[in-house]
């Protein structure tokens, strides 16, 4: 079965024990406190050094990027939708040589008692052609760990 004929969409969900507004704020404005920069960054992949922080510009057209200690930046994504505190969409293109950006949609749903369900949907792998399944699987195996770090920071 070709990559185009199968569903390559990644779907992950977690529940955090914080109100929706707090969860959204930590995910966006505090991304530099929870994103695993020591393993998931352009700088680590290219030089083995951890970047200084990650930055999320909270508006449509904003950028998501890592900042190095020398002031340089590594681009990750463009904010395609920004609907605080319930939803955001990113055009994700960490690798400038990738055939196209993928799409990450994150929604934040109140679950009662101050809890929030966070649903992440990562799609758009089809332009990768024969490499689509491999590219998708690399992300699929890492999203729960990344979201686990977010959960720890949000609840911390």
Brief overview:
With 156 residues, the chain is an alpha+beta fold. It contains 4 helices and 7 strands; from the N terminus they run βαααββββββα. It has a 7-stranded antiparallel beta sheet with strand order 1-7-6-5-4-3-2.
Which descriptors apply to this entry?
156 residues, disordered N terminus, seven-stranded antiparallel sheet
Major sheet summary line: 7 strands, antiparallel
The value of Rg in angstroms is: 16 Å
Number of strands: 7
Span of the ends, CA to CA:
44 Å
Helicity level, as a percent range? 25-40%
Categorize the overall geometry.
Answer: globular
Class by alpha and beta content: alpha+beta
Q: Which strand order does the major sheet show?
A: 1-7-6-5-4-3-2
What portion of residues belong to β-strands? 25-35%
Report the average pLDDT across residues: 94
Poorly predicted regions are 1-5
Element-level helix/strand string: EHHHEEEEEEH
Tell me the number of helical segments per DSSP (H or I, 4 or more residues long): 4
